[in-house]
Every structure is written in structure tokens, then in C-alpha cells.
From TrEMBL:
Its EC number is 1.-.-.-. This is Quinol monooxygenase. The keyword Oxidoreductase applies. Keywords: Monooxygenase, Oxidoreductase. It comes from Glycomyces mayteni.
Amino acid sequence: MITVHAYVWTLPEHRDAYLAGLRALQDSTLANDHGCLEYRFWESVTEPGAFVCVEAWTDRAALDAHLAAPHHATGSAALDPYRARPADIRVYESTPIDL
């Protein structure tokens, strides 16, 4: 399994537009990308406008297909005017375990 943590930030004055873009990207990913196990955005409780997208993919091929998908390119480009800084993306190979 591939896990992605994509940290992203919005300019405060564009938070509503950024949220709408994040929702659209989430919806299109969950509807269209085979191999997507999880794709959810969460906002920081200590840094307003800071979000993380937690993604889980069956394998690297599924993630690569997502990154190449037209809806991802369009959705990401729509967010560009509202970004406070570049994304910090971390990709991991992972194995779920029980606690």
C-alpha cells in the first residue's frame, strides 16, 4: 500500500475558494481513481488554512495514474491562485497493522 501525506496551505483571504477546490478534487478522485482507498483533507487545529490530505492507494501504479489523471491536473491548477506556499508531499510504502 502507498500512503501519501500532502501538506497544503491557503492564503487566509481565499480560504472559502480553496476549500471548494479541495472538495472538488476529493470528490473527483474518489469517484474516478481506481485503487484509491482513502483521500481526505483535514485542517490543522493550530494553524488555520493549513491542511493535510491523507491518501491511501493500493499500489504505486494507482497513485501514478491519479497524478496523471486530467481531473487531478485541472483540480490542482484551480487551487494554484489560492496557495500560500508550495505543497509538502511525503510518500510512504506502508503496511497496515493492528494495535
